[in-house]
């Protein structure tokens, strides 16, 4: 079974951190990411780009409306994602718990949401 992990953060909380605290937090991420990838179960792992480059597509009156930026109403924002292939939910939880957003960054509002996928690969 494949699972999508969404790594969240709370922009206001993260922005309130001192620059040294941000650097100390972010510097721990590469080793944790590598530990998770070393399981051999991670199919995709990515940090998402700066929100200023995001675009939202929404249906409006039978047409696709395109607007700049993330316009979902939420206090948390997705900052990264990963896809893992696990034998069962317990294995997926064990692997997802290695992600930096599941282990660090409480002050920045970090969290991981794990979602089972119905996965389709285009031919």
Number of discrete helical segments? 5
Shape: flat
CATH superfamily: Dimeric alpha+beta barrel
Outline the biggest β-sheet.
4 strands, antiparallel
Low-pLDDT segments: none
By CATH, the topology is Alpha-Beta Plaits
Strand order of the largest sheet: 2-5-1-6
Report the order of strands and helices: EHHHEEEEHHE
Question: What is the distance, rounded to the nearest whole angstrom, between the alpha carbons of the first and last residues?
Answer: 20 Å
Number of strands: 6
Helix content: 25-40%
Q: Brief overview, please?
A:
The protein is an alpha+beta fold and 123 residues long.
Describe the overall structure.
The chain has 123 residues and is of the alpha+beta class. It is built from 5 helices and 6 strands. A 4-stranded antiparallel sheet has the order 2-5-1-6. The chain is flat and about 45 Å long.
Secondary-structure map:
Layout: E1 2-9, H1 11-15, H2 19-27, H3 29-37, E2 42-47, E3 55-60, E4 63-68, E5 77-85, H4 89-96, H5 100-103, E6 111-117
Give keywords.
123 residues, alpha+beta, Alpha-Beta Plaits, four-stranded antiparallel β-sheet, 6 strands, 28% helix
